[in-house]
Queue: 2 jobs
Job 1
Amino acid sequence: MESELTNFIDSLEFRIKPLETAANMAYFNAAVTGKDEEYQKSSDLNVQLSKIYADKESFKRLKAFKESGKITDSLLVRQLNILYNTFLSNQVDEQKLENLIRSQTALEQKYSTFRATVNGKKYTDNEIENVLKTSVSSAELEKSWLASKQIGDSVSSDVIALVKMRNGIAKELGFANYQEMSLKLSDQDPEEIERLFDELDSLTRPVFMKVKNEMDSVLALKYGISPDKLMPWHYQNRFFQEAPAIYNVDLDSYYADKDVVSIAKDYFSGIGLDVSGILERSDLYEKEGKYQHAFCTHIDRSGDVRVVCNMKNNSQWMNTLLHELGHGVYDLNLDMSLPFYLRSPAHTFTTEAIAMIFGRLASNPLWLQDNAGVSADEAVKIREGVRSNLRLEQLVFSRWTQVMFRFEKSMYENPDQDLNRLWWDLVEKYQMIKKPEGRNNADWASKIHVALYPCYYHNYQLGELLASQLQAAINTRILNTGATDVVSMSNEPAAGEFLLENVFGPGARYQWNDMIKRATGEELTAKYFAAQFLD
Ligand SMILES: [Zn+2]
């Protein structure tokens, strides 16, 4: 049975590998050039790939392997699980899938063409965010915030229809609802994830209340009102998912006259993770028609790793480049002798965690001192402000992810409930901001992720938790310092070695929590995140 499975996997790899490589290459070229034909090529290749994974005969065989109980070799068990989940998620009635894709595309267009209207004038999301960040007039803030929510009511029935379609597919595949399916197929136990969010909630609640009180007094002063009059539009972001700027921190000046690409290259080389090959293959600077954000791709699961960026010498792009190169060193240092299907990170959130460990360095005063020529005096001077700012960012984001995770879970359990009310109950409970009196609108539907990138948001938070847990392990085991001490790891090849041996090398050989336990001695927990940012 095991040799039969090995043959099955080999012949699958034989068909998948060239297609997957070509699809990744086409996507990279599309992003870099913006050319229609490359986008077309990329989507055609992805359709071909999904057809292979939709094959009913192959799925039947995988099911038989799984149910035989005769597959015991640990590497084969892991490959079988990964393939089974991939095939299962593609075993959907073609008509249902097509309807879903069509509805999603139509809705995507509604979101991207929507413009908030204030006093008859149309505003982009960026313009609205800019008003929320800079205006000090409560009346203007309120109008802009309300305008940013207009999209909600106009798409809410479409979103509910989508949710029900997704639930229909999930039920057909034997799951209670789409949220449960989505987590289980990505190898996450819904109850375990909920326990982590509960743990995170109880760890962050007291300190969030304290910091939020401090923040409220600063904001009240700024807007000339009393703290109890603060409304959702006073928090400088449509969803209060980012920290308001209440500390005076400007890191851009440290990077303005530097070459952030060579800073990153030298830093990684100092910890024994050479990124020069990645940088040579990458596309780093702005171009006409090019994709405007950033990503990292492993083209062939054999070491062709590249990033796409639009570099500027400022703190945001320093963070982004370190982040993408974090994904890059993970992919590049996978044990290439592992079978094809295990040559990937243990989970999408584990590679996110590595990216976050490195991205966070861009606003780390010690790191600035070691890598960007900031003087020791200057580093001491900015330390408090940077730390307070980082803490506020992490706290605000973590409370927001509580809302997203719990809203999606409950919405997929019962899409017919009063979702407007569910949303505000969660916002009040976790973000601790007030619902405007009598408000009964589909504010939840103004968040595009709820509609179009379902049941993924929690992974950003899990990545933050793991980043802190791994950092704590590096601090205590490798650098012999306190778990929560601020470190830069500069010129500490042992830190790179730790990640290489315990995280990158193993790839997907172990289930993610198994990998985390082997690397840190504990399964994923919120306590290191709490310890790092909350005291
Ligand atoms: Zn990332």
Note: The pocket of zinc ion is lined by residues 323, 327, 352, 355 (CB under 6 Å).
Job 2
Amino acid sequence: MADTTETDWVSRFADEVISEAERRAPGKPIVCASGLSPSGPIHLGNLREVMTPHLVADEIRRRGHDCVHLLSWDDYDRFRRVPAGIDPSWAEHIGKPLTSVPAPPGSPYASWAEHFKAPMTEALAELGVACTGISQTEQYTAGTYREQILLAMRERERINAVLARYRTKETAGKEVAGYYPYKPYCELCERDLTTVTAYDDDSTELAYTCECGFGETVRLAEHDRGKLVWKVDWPMRWAYEGVVFEPSGVDHHSPGSAWIVGGQLVGEVFGGERPIGPMYAFVGITGMAKMSSSKGDVPTPADALEIMEAPVLRWLYARRKPSQSFKIAFDHEIQRLYDEWDSLGRKVATEATQPAELAAYERAVRTSEGPLAATPRPVPYRTLASIVDITTGDDDQTLRILRDLDGELTSLDEARPRLDRAQRWIDTQVPADQRTRVRESPDTELLAALDEAARDSLRLLVDGLDEHWSLDGLTTLVYGVPKVQAGLAADAKATPELKSAQRAFFALLYRLLVGQDTGPRLPTLLLAVGADRVRKLVGV
Ligand SMILES: [Zn+2]
């Protein structure tokens, strides 16, 4: 059964999870899990919580096994604080379950939790992540965990003893009188500012008081308005769902953390086993412009998908082991990332790639359900970015330039969705002072001041335009003009003198075309400006 295809980290975990699932629950669907809290915008960094089990679950499915990926929404957690930008009056909801807090003003959603879940759910669908969302509010309020809650309450001394092993010196001496792993939400004010004052195992009668002044006695066997505390809730769900794989962030792995304590409680109390759970490293974000996030100051997966295609975002996660941290670029690095991605694509199509490289590519472009949306005729991202920058999004001009690059391209749709991502990147991430503004009229003053050699270089350029009107051709042309002037052959090796002449020539062209010393790569710029306008601006 275990057909090991040990090509990359995903395959190695899939091997391990399949064999562990066969030992724990033979014949049953294999369960991988993620957990997210919709307490606010879901940070792009938290996508790793979902992508790690997704990739493993997808590999398990590719091998023909039945596998479910549960995405547990911790929407029955308490609302902890009012984020910046939200009306301070939301403070009255602190302590209520996230599903009982009203959504931010203007939201079409019924609750705070739904408001923040929705864009994440949409992004996951675009990323090809097939997972089953579970609302913990629904689970708890439907009494799904009733037996587990009663069990945890019966075993409260044992749970307290496990927790005590990790209590720090400061708290160790203090008696934890009347420890209860269950926290009711107040019947009157809906908040969790409650204290359990008594519990009877036989009758399951539970008495609590609330800071609001309310108090009552309920029968826990019938009570569905409360939850197990986090360190007990997590292992309870491992056992209840039979989770075999669930990664977690570095912060969960310190002594006394939920992962460590849960690993003991799951066996000692709930009769289950801790999942295989790699610790994943931090994912950072570079250069995100403040203005661009539509959901506050936090970059979300939806923000990333506005500027890069789903396979590229998937690739970032697939190619790095969970223990390796990396950064997602919103700045100019995204152009280099796309160059790397395109070069990998060419390599995959034409020559043998390393097995791990190929595996990461395959995981990026398709899932066990099929291929993800791709751009039919992909033009390099940096070229697209330059074009939409220069044409300021004018479709006719953009199409004209793209046709110069790719004669077989018939409509802009064939360059999409990549074209739209590059457009969005230029619009939201590139500051106005870095945008390219092609001159409307020639710089007559500069042109009049040119010496004969400079005029000659411009004539050589203009004379070669038609013959070299392609990205490669114009590259040859702009590097070649200074060679011709120096009496060198077209394939002459670069000398310091030649390089210096080339730099001077490029600077002159940037001055004449965009009024700056630098700009987008010259061949792209020339194509984008168009031959007629180039002739007009260089004054020859
Ligand atoms: Zn209350």
Note: The longest strand covers residues 30-36.
